[in-house]
Amino acid sequence: MQLSQSQQKRIQKYLDQQGLNFQPLRAEIEDHLLSDLEQRMDSGASFDEAWVAITQPLAETHFSSIQYQTMETIKKRLSISNFLINISIGLLLVASLFKLLHFPGTTWLVLSSLLSLGISFLATSLSGIRRNTDKKRVGLMIVVLAALLLFWISWLFAVIQLPGMVPLRTLSIFLLLMLFPFLQQLISQKEDTSREMIVYLHEKATAGINRLILLALALATLLKLFSISMNYPPQVSAVFAIMVLIIAGFHLFASTWHNQYNGDVRQHTWLKIFMIGLFVIYFVPALGSVVPLEVRAMMVYLFYLGMGYLVFLRWNLVQPSLGTLSYILISIFLTGWLFQTLGWMGHIAGALFNLPVLLIMVIFLMLSQKNSLQRLLWCMVVAHFLFEYPFPHSLW
């Protein structure tokens, strides 16, 4: 039996009186109350009878105690997560210093940093899984978590050159591509995504993730300059650039689940399909040589143009002029890169891959501080530049 609006308002008033202001927990308790009431009313009880039967056995501070315990648990897990992120940042700095001074152990420091990040992600994710009582949703979150960890482990295998990297990465990408449409549909159905634990936890971890991305990008830039000017091996710079592409990519998709963007996706079916398509073309190039170079290059190109349209044009309400100019510049750069990669043009890389272009990109990145999505996408573009630079036939 469907509850009336006045009955639903009574539930809201009761939750307010209980002091429940932690939205994810409040949403779960509200769902339980609604479900219990409807079941009892379907069995013949009136609303008042069902209400008394449910609430009378509960202590006055029952829900507030649950909220306190929940918040304490989350704070501990977030503290652990932020601590591990800071450890990872410290290890990246030490690894860069070791590389510049030609000390041994750089690879293991980078590996330790990646492990710290993986554990941080696991600790944060478990908080959301533990608090979620919807079995189907918990099952989906566990499988998504397993796929993400497999992808991260495959990257660790690549860093230390262990066998098994290709099948691990292929399996993880296959799982992620299968699961993302369900996750996107689940999130986009919610009018208020702040009530979703996974979104809440992501919001809390956002500051630490942003610091890590910017630091990894700065180190990638510094090491790239040293590798070119002093003939240092470029591998460590490439590792940092790929780290930015992976973390910023995940972070970017998760950020679109926040209320200011999800509302638009929820209202337009084509946007849901568009987001799923962007996720596919973001991940497929990670399969490497399994996919032909021409296909990978085209997918990378389409990802930046598609995500750029959303980030710089459709969802950009703060800096519209900067967003439009950013989209034009990125489109020109990536079009030239694609043509050069596919051999459709002569050697134009000198006009694309040089220090003035890198400087312009960094300036636009710094100007995008007011818009988190713009900043993330610019980080990915700069990391893409650093990974490719020096492109064949590019100029110093």
Layout of strands and helices, then pairs:
Elements: H1 5-17, H2 23-42, H3 47-55, H4 62-100, H5 106-131, H6 135-159, H7 165-188, H8 197-229, H9 235-255, H10 259-267, H11 269-283, H12 293-314, H13 320-342, H14 349-352, H15 355-367, H16 372-388
Helix pairs in contact: 1-2, 2-3, 4-5, 4-8, 5-6, 5-8, 6-7, 7-11, 8-9, 8-16, 9-16, 10-11, 11-12, 12-13, 12-16, 15-16
Report on this structure.
The protein is mainly α and 396 residues long. It has 3 domains: 5-60, no CATH class; 77-268, no CATH class; 292-396. It contains 16 helices and no strands. It is elongated. The N and C termini lie far apart (72 Å). Residues 392-396 have low confidence and may be disordered.
In short:
With 396 residues, the chain is mainly α.
Q: How far apart lie the N and C ends?
A: 72 Å
Name the overall outline.
Answer: elongated
Low-confidence stretches: 392-396
SSE pattern, N- to C-terminal: HHHHHHHHHHHHHHHH
Number of domains: 3
Give keywords.
about 400 residues; disordered C terminus; mainly alpha; 3 domains
